[in-house]
Amino acid sequence: MPQLDHLVLRNVWLSSWVLSFSLLGDALLYVVLPVHADAFGVSMVVVGFLLAVNRIIRTFAYGLIADLAERIGLKKLCLIAAVTASISTLGYGWLDGGIALTLSRMLWGLSYASLLLITLAFAAINPKKTGTRIGVSRSVEQVGPLLAMTCGAWLTTIVGPRDVFIYLGIVTSLSAFIAFILDDKAQPNKIKKPLSRNYIFSRPDSLDLLIFWMGFGIDGIFTVLISLMWTQYLSLEMAILIGGSVLASRRLCEMIVAPMAGAIADKLGVRIPLFITVALTIVGFGLIGIGFLVLGSIALVLARGALGTLFPAAVAKIYSQNKVKALTRNQTWRDVGAAIGPLLAGASLSVISPEFMHIFVAIAFSISFFVFIRSKEYKLLL
Q1: pLDDT for 125 beyond 80
Q2: Using CA atoms, how far apart are residues 138 and 257, in angstroms rounded to an integer?
Q3: Which pLDDT band, with edges at 50, 70 and 90, does 127 fall under?
Q4: Which of 148, 224, 336, 364 has the fewest C-beta atoms lying within 10 Å of its C-beta?
Q5: What is the structure's pLDDT at 69?
Q6: Buried b / exposed e across 308-337, counting CB within 10 Å, b at 16+?
Q7: What CA–CA distance (Å, rounded) separates 74 from 329?
Q8: Residue 48 exposure: Cα atoms within 13 Å on the Cβ side
Q9: In CATH, what number does 2-184+200-379 get?
């Protein structure tokens, strides 16, 4: 058993580094594309679609990818996903126009869905210290995006908004070598039957709705609009750097907070830290909505750092007998929200202010939170 635990932790560590490097291009795209849409040959409406289409693909792909992992194994799937992630990042630098970039984003959606399920599957193998392993995974995962949003944003000002993705694509390709040294011996239990689309898109429970609004609000509205909101106060170049720094601070915060949140959830239970963090999220959206951009951003950055660990830990606790299936469905609803968020932001920006969008999320999140604390799922978190 100690030997198996060592192999499991090793695979969690390695697969998380693969995901981390693979996220380089995607992370920078959220910073660069909204303010350099012309350089990519697209409009703001298309920008919203491009930042959402990868998530749309994922919502339909999770079940199929889980079945594919059963057939070929997590190691082979991780290797394939690392290669396709590199190709998609290079595509951001080489391809022009909505159609070609959509294909790159769709390919990235499949890559990310695969890598995310792989890391979660390894982390949830053993019920003991699941929160800690998820926290470690989330911490490692943030290194790549953090580098992209700081060094990548700086490099953009030197080589331009297109060539920067060529460099990132080359670095991403190194993740395939990490995937190659994963150990086949530590695998999660087999799923007894394939994941049906009916299960993935079955009526969401109260926890699914909460993670939907997290995806819609933090991963969608806030992430897409933060750089644009800073253009009200700063030059275009400074807005990109500040927006990139805010998103990078979210990644840095998650590196620090995620392992702490996981350890607290393992020791004290996930209910109390989840309650506090969701409440902080609602406050953050409200603050941005009334004009306190800095304070609201700090609140959302802190909250997102913990929620990335606490939500999967809560799912693993509630659905202890069907972890992979439940994690797949939960991540699907997160991606549904994160896909709708950028679409709504891009399509309605000409008639609805970014501040009002954040107020709307605060209200919707509050209602969903009230439903959750009165639900059977909340009671199961004791």
Answers
A1: no
A2: 9
A3: low
A4: 364
A5: 81
A6: bbbbbbbbbbbbeeebbbbbbbbbbbbbbb
A7: 19
A8: 18
A9: 1.20.1250.20
Amino acid at residue number 315: V
Whether residue 350 has pLDDT greater than 70: yes
Q: What is the pLDDT of residues 56-109, one digit of tens each?
A: 888 788 778 877 887 888 889 999 999 999 999 999 999 988 899 999 999 999
Cα distances from 173 to residues 6, 14, 83, in angstroms, run 27, 15, 6
* Helix (H) or strand (E) run with residue 375 in it: none
Token pair, residue 240, equals 């990109």
User: With contact defined as beta carbons under 8 Å apart, do 314 and 326 qualify?
Assistant: no
Displacement of CA 160 from its chain's centroid (Å): 26
Domain-by-domain residue ranges, the chain? 2-184+200-379
When comparing pLDDT for 10 and 168, which is higher?
168
**What six digits make up the tokens of 98?**
């909505």
At 325, list the tokens: 């299936």
Long-range pairs for 154-158 at CB < 8 Å and ≥24 separation?
Answer: 154/241, 156/28, 156/32, 156/240, 157/237, 157/240, 157/241
DSSP 189: P
- Residue 56 has a pLDDT of 82
Contacts of 93 by beta carbon, 8 Å cutoff, 6+ apart: 162, 163, 164, 165, 166, 169
Burial 30-54 (b: 16+ CB within 10 A, else e): bbbbbbbbeebebebbbbbbbbbbb
Write out 308-351 in H/E/C secondary structure. Answer: HHHHHHHHHHHCCCCHHHHHHHHHHHHHHHHHHHHHHHHHHCCC
In this structure, what token pair is assigned to residue 108?
A: 């990235």
Residue 89's contacts (CB-CB under 8 Å, 6 or more residues apart) are 24, 25, 26, 108, 165, 168, 169, 172
Of 301, 39, 6, 337, which is closest to residue 47 (Cα–Cα)?
39
Q: Helix, strand or coil for residue 112?
A: helix
pLDDT(172) > 90:
yes
